[in-house]
Amino acid sequence: WQYPEPERDSHGLEIRSEENNSGLFVSLLEVKNASVALTGVYTCYHNHSQIEEHEIEGKEIYIYVPDPTVAFVPSSILDHFIPVEEDDFAIIPCRTTDPSSNA
Length: 103
Known about the structure:
The chain is an all-beta fold. It has strands at 13-19, 25-31, 40-44, 50-52, 55-56, 59-63.
């Protein structure tokens, strides 16, 4: 699994493997005590599916953890650096905690 990692330790995440009704083994990521810091992309992947360094092929889902008191996902230091080459374009994300908010 690859998932958002808050700056402080997150003890509410548990990964376990189970056998489903079809006899297949599946990997489950359980989030307990979710907070806005856990808003983001979650990727389930096989250990041998890494294409290149820092590139993973897997199934992705974006999870929102709405919080009426926190409009935007807390940023990390890496969010402040978006490398762009000359004459190229960049996308600057505006990550809200609620998909229905107007930003």
